[in-house]
Amino acid sequence: MSYLVWPEHIGIIMDGNGRWAKLRGLPRSAGHKEGARVMEDIIVYAEKETDIKFLTFYAFSTENWSRPADEIKSLMQLFELHLDRLIATTDKHDIVIKFIGDRSRLSDTLVEKMKKCEEKSGKNEKLTVYIAINYGGRQEIAFAAREVAKKVQHGELLIDEIDEKTLEREIFTKESPHADLIIRPSGEQRLSNFLLWQSAYSEFYFDGVLWPDFTKDDLIRAVTEFNKRNRRFGGI
Ligand code: IPE
Ligand code: IPE
Ligand code: MG
Questions:
Q1: Average of pLDDT values for 83-90?
Q2: Would you call 84 a catalytic residue per the annotation?
Q3: 34 and 20 Cβ atoms separated by less than 8 Å
Q4: How far separated are the first and last CA of the chain, in Å rounded?
Q5: Alpha carbon nearest to ligand 2 atom 12, residue
Q6: Residue spans of beta strands (DSSP E) within 80-225
Q7: Which of 45, 127, 204, 211 is the most exposed place for a label (fewest CB within 10 A)?
């Protein structure tokens, strides 16, 4: 394999769990469970074997609340279980975990586990993993606008001073560069409200594989393709 340049920040839309389960005659929750395992494998691989600095995983969108109550319930239970595992993983691997999205609609138990995960992994540094739960790109931009408005209201900022950088400082992933590469498995070719602000100049990689079948080889394939892209950022 030729030398790969790893993107600094990769966003992954973990899609296709339901179809994976359906193909096997299993309940959708079985697909989500397998999907969570794959996410963990990719995180560990990225930390051990790659130069990726930031990985953002889309786990639950603001629109996913429109799913049947029993699916939402099983997803929330899975997040709790998965976080216990992730907390243990961050003891063994140099991974920082951060959550993005609105926590106000999540259970107290889940929010506590999220905090614990962030606190325990906060001392690590090699790879930062953002997990998007109850996240939407529009929600994030609305949140940033509200924070900017508060600064104006408190006299810390003039309206005419508001520019892209002002909003940038309020974006959930503000400690990271924008997403260089966004990967979406499952065959769908859309963002579904993921990283709207951060994807202005992302490269996109769509793959027919269903997320529970996604492996490090699929990640390498996406990055190999990324290496062939010519990013111009509006220049020549
Ligand atoms: C992604 O898989 C997981 C979440 C959105 C929570 P899906 O559940 O969307 O799986 P498909 O798209 O129905 O196959
Ligand atoms: C996007 O997948 C959200 C997550 C992967 C968490 P969806 O399955 O919700 O997206 P749509 O509905 O196909 O656009
Ligand atoms: Mg889907």
A1: 95
A2: no
A3: yes
A4: 30
A5: 192
A6: 95-100, 127-135, 181-184, 203-206
A7: 45
